[in-house]
TrEMBL record:
Coiled coil region boundaries: none
Family classification: Belongs to the short-chain dehydrogenases/reductases (SDR) family.
Taxonomy of the source species: Eukaryota, Metazoa, Chordata, Craniata, Vertebrata
Name of the protein in its database record: Dehydrogenase/reductase SDR family member 7C
Gene Ontology biological process terms, A to Z: intracellular calcium ion homeostasis
Amino acid sequence: YAPKLILLDISDINCIQDVAKEILNCYGCVDILINNASMKVKGAVQSISLELDKKIMNANYFGPITLTKAILPNMISRRTGQIVLINSIQGKIGIPFRAAYAASKHAAVGFFDCLRAEMEEFDISVSTVNPTFICSYHRQPAAGNWEASIWK
């Protein structure tokens, strides 16, 4: 198959269904789905807005599960497939100043652990990978601007 670039903002839940349809229309199926997008913010709980908490949860939890649920019926009908969640060690343990990020990663681990058990009967493999801390792109925020402290 010729590669095709399909852009997706995983935090925009409303467009994921259309992107999944585009992928399935183009290739007919997805053999392996690797959920590897993430967004995080560093700051004290009382300093992070609820709006930003929701943005982190959309990107790290609702995004991957929405995409997975869009692709899953095709895998189930074929009785084959592999789903991988690249998550974070913070999905297992929380550390100070990362509450929204850790909460979203804990939620994702819980969802994909349950999915693994449910998909066994369909021969669909579900894996979660929880690496320790990694370096990623980061921009330094202006004083008092927590929105700018998002890691992508």
